[in-house]
Amino acid sequence: MAKYLKITLSILMISVIIISCKKDSPVDEDGLLITFRQECFVSNFELLGSDFVTVRAATAVIDTVAQTINVTVNPGTDLKNVYPQFTLATDCKLDPKITGKTDLSNLTSPKIYTVVSGNRKIRKPYTLNIKF
Amino acid sequence: MRNKNIQFPVLILIMLTSMLACTKQEYTIPDPVAQLTNDCIKRTIGPSIVSLPLEFAYAMALPKINGKLVSAEVEASIAGASGTYLENRSFYTNSSGVDVPVTVGTPSTTVDKITKVTFSVDTNASTLRYYYVIPEAARGQSVSFTFTANSSDGKKATYKMGPYAISKMSIVKNLAVSNGANAFISIEDMAVYNATAAATNAGKIDLVYLYRATPTTFTHALVSPAADVAYLPGVTLPTGVNRSVKLRKTFGLQDRNLSNLQYGIYVDDIDFQQLDMVDMPNYALGLKAESGVWVETIDKKYRAYIFVNSINAAGTAVISILRYTL
After folding, report:
1. Which residue of A has its CA nearest to B229?
2. How confident is the model at residue B2 (pLDDT cuts 50, 70, 90)?
């Protein structure tokens, strides 16, 4: 009788362990949660100088259809040392990532940042156009 | 049966241990101080910069029956600069929170490394403040102090403080700059020149201060003489003034020393050592009051932090400089 009880308890424990270790929420290569959301757009954009004060001369114009961001910056802005900041739709992420100081001084070849949706299935490239 | 025999003694043992562990230890009143004793604290915080003072509070006392305080002295490992002194007054704080001085001794005398005060009143307890002005000889070195108190019963008490590392930085505060006049700044000299003086010190001029009301983002600026002419509108540089520096604007870094003791932030040697000046421009436009600029001279001899104390729309400003020799 005791033998059967032990076997039953062992099976029960193993089952609990297996269930508790089951991965129920998928994450992407960055460890971010992959959700069901399909929204994929830039909602706001900011550009900061080396002193972390804005260098924008006016509010950035974001066209979610043409997928462009047009920014006018103050005269004399040192575009080699700026910090772009994107506000994205919920659960989205940006590719390439912004890890710090960014060089945006090549105005003839605007940088392209791709927004990736929460479900990681939609990718929308946004062109960042800067002018003085 | 055997188990029960073991369990009972173990239970008793655990109970006894618990009781012993909870025994309250009686508090004993410490022995009163029976001889001359002393203590000291360093009141200055932040980096130790040449020309600025280090402040200490040195306390000494002995039981009244043993006698009175005779003298107090401080020996520094490196002789202090002019202005080093030991207070001859002790302070108490009145009901309004104001420190009120009470003279307890003759003004201090400093001979080489030793600063001394002789007590002129009958007192058996006192706290004296010591101000050590850091001399040029201590730059990049470390300095330590030995405080000594002497009492009338022939006893002596000593207290050692330090060693304290002395910064390699230099400081100059409250330099007035003005557009078109005193506009030429030398990091090497840590001074501001007019056009005539700049011409005679052309090889040392690193920056030009200028003010332009338009465009509105230009306003107060620090620009290298070698910068693009677009950033030096209407400026005629004195002959030979052509150096370039790297500049990095910053905001919210109000160093306590540079801002005349207003804030609790300090720029220290390590900030200059770890500063990233790669790809920085040679101009800084749109400077505001209490903003700052990191500077690196083109020969990489100096790094500096220029703090803007105040600005005036008439085209003047007051700046302060911390400089670090690389």
Report:
1. A76
2. low
